[in-house]
């Protein structure tokens, strides 16, 4: 039997921090303009209103996590060092221009498998990056959202147990439909995304029944087909 430490007995038990809700953000075509296979920081252009919306959302206490498929690494279009410089430039610009500190940055470096399906557990529409980020940063997936410009992003969110929001900037061209790929809401501007999430977070206060798949407000559109 071990020796009891009287000082340790006086210490309060460790308090586990509650899990935070998060917004998982696709990079190309959602946060920044889509320049295929770009690794040049000089070509970074934020989508209109994205920085301002993230500034608003950061004030709510929600975690902000970028999750991005980067098959250009597997294809040899750019190196990990080149992408690291792009990532650093993106994070620095968000901080310097908008005061936004990103909580996490998850990258899938793999190419798609047969018939365009994920060949790994992390490439969206697989949920691996979201689940990995949740473990790393103490995130509550059931109170979180994934926002992206294609239905693969929506599906990844739903597969992780989060909400799936479509930022309709023209990236989705196939529209392959299934229940997991039905967006909870569709947006064409970042201000509406921020409105939707702020309203949901306010609704969630003191309501354990809330979930991120709820009804969209009037400034968002639901997608039915």
Automatic annotation (TrEMBL):
GO MF assignments: hydrolase activity
The entry's keywords: Carbohydrate metabolism, Cytoplasm, Hydrolase, Metal-binding
Pfam families named among the record's database cross-references: Hydrolase_like (PF13242)
Subcellular localization, as worded in the UniProt entry: Cytoplasm
InterPro entries: HAD-like_sf, HAD-SF_hydro_IIIA, HAD_sf, Heptose_bisP_phosphatase, Histidinol-phos
Region (Disordered): 204-225
SUPFAM superfamilies: HAD-like
Top-level division of the source organism's lineage: Bacteria
Protein name: D,D-heptose 1,7-bisphosphate phosphatase
